[in-house]
Amino acid sequence: MKVLAINRDSIVDGEGLRTVVYFAGCPHRCYGCHNPESWDYDQGKDYTADELVEAVLQGETQNVTLSGGEPFAQAEEVYPAAAALKRSGLNVWSYTGYEYEELAESGTDSQKALLETIDVLVDGPYRDKERDTTLAFRGSRNQRIIRLKEQKAAQLSSK
Predict the structure, then answer these.
(1) Strand order in the sheet with 63-67
(2) Residue 42: phi, psi to the nearest 5?
(3) What cofactors does this protein use (predicted)?
(4) Sign of torsion, CA 158 116 60 139?
């Protein structure tokens, strides 16, 4: 997988102190994106899942955020790393320009597996016309913070 950067001690990419992994490549190319250098799939450094897990766990973190670029564009490679980080006890957030329903209903098997691993998903493309700097952890009003474990529990209890 291609990784642009691993940043430690973020307080803006999810709740708590987090390590953020920025993946290379993004099909969305949102107008006004704050990270357009992440669009190119050929940028960054190659990592195996084990190398990425080791790099993240070197820090003193209990939280990790998968960002980009688009983590779900590399889901086949990202999923094993995210699953290992989750097994290590980390809280896992992910940003995506896809909407949750699109991934859950029409995503690849790897994208669906990655969804199952994540605790919190911030979904939806960045929309410059809906920019709102007062929102926590989001850039535009259309984006949602979805607590996937809570959502799944609510869906099961409603059946």
Answers:
(1) 45-46, 2-10, 18-23, 63-67, 91-95, 120-123, 144-147
(2) -95, -5
(3) [4Fe-4S] cluster
(4) negative
Query: How are beta strands 2-10 and 45-46 bridged, if at all?
Result: antiparallel
- Contact status, residue 98 vs residue 143, Cβ threshold 8 Å: no
Summarised one tens digit per residue, pLDDT across range 28-66 is: 887 888 788 888 888 999 999 999 999 999 988 899 999
Whether 25 and 40 have beta carbons less than 8 Å apart is answered as yes
58 lies in which domain range?
A: 2-157
Q: What is the CATH number of the domain that holds 128?
A: 3.20.20.70
Of 84, 42, 17, the closest CA to residue 7 belongs to 17
User: What's CA 143's distance to the chain center, in Å?
Assistant: 13
d(C-alpha 37, C-alpha 61), whole Å: 26
Domain count, the chain: 1
- 77 or 33, which is more confident? 77
Q: Give dist(CA 137, CA 89) in Å, integer.
A: 22
Q: Return the residue matching tokens 């939806």.
A: 124
Average pLDDT score over residue span 83-90: 96
